[in-house]
Specification:
Blueprint lengths: L2 E6 L16 H17 L5 E5 L3 H14 L3 E3 L16 H13 L7 E6 L1 H16 L13 E5 L4 E5 L1
Parallel strand pairs: 1-4, 2-3, 2-4
Antiparallel strand pairs: 1-5, 5-6
Helix pairs in contact: 1-2
Length: about 160
């Protein structure tokens, strides 16, 4: 694995107050544009997509997977909803299990795309920095429907908006 792309799910109908709402039209549109940018970055590379299990997360992953022409797998470890690993204070444990899932893929993809929520999207980069790259890697806010690419070889990060 050479790169990890962390995607924050697209925008949902925030006015409804539900914990697991579907993407709104604006969210679908923004993720569609993001999927085009990701497609341009992964040309000629092997790619795997892992998504959280929330509705808006899987809808985001579906848009990206359709554009790339590959399936995605959903993993409850990427869920940040009430009762999820973030709330239980078990981020490192969750991240280790997610990382193992990525490393167990055969053949090993060049690029992993993780689709998740703000809690993991902001906390996963420092985990990668500390535990995998052995260097500080700040976890900045990632807006809904955008992504952060972490190049594990160059030890760099780039925002995809």
């Amino acid at each position: 694995m050479k790169k990890v792309i962390i995607v924050r799910h697209g925008k949902d109908n925030e006015d409804s107050g539900g914990l697991d709402e579907p993407l709104c039209e604006e969210g679908r549109s923004k993720v569609g544009l993001l999927s085009e940018k990701i497609a341009a970055l992964v040309v000629g590379k092997t790619v795997a997509i892992i998504s959280c299990t929330s509705l808006r997360g899987t809808q985001t992953a579906e848009i990206i997977s359709r554009r790339l022409g590959i399936p995605f797998m959903a993993n409850v470890l990427l869920w940040t909803g009430e009762g999820g690993m973030v709330w239980a204070g078990q981020l490192d444990e969750a991240f280790e299990m997610i990382w193992e899932t990525m490393e167990e893929q055969s053949p090993q993809p060049d690029i992993f795309i993780l689709v998740t929520h703000s809690g993991y999207a902001e906390a996963f980069p420092p985990f990668i920095g500390e535990h995998k790259l052995r260097m500080p890697l700040k976890g900045d806010s990632i807006a809904k429907g955008t992504a952060l690419l972490i190049d594990l070889e160059r030890k760099e990060k780039t925002y995809i908006e």
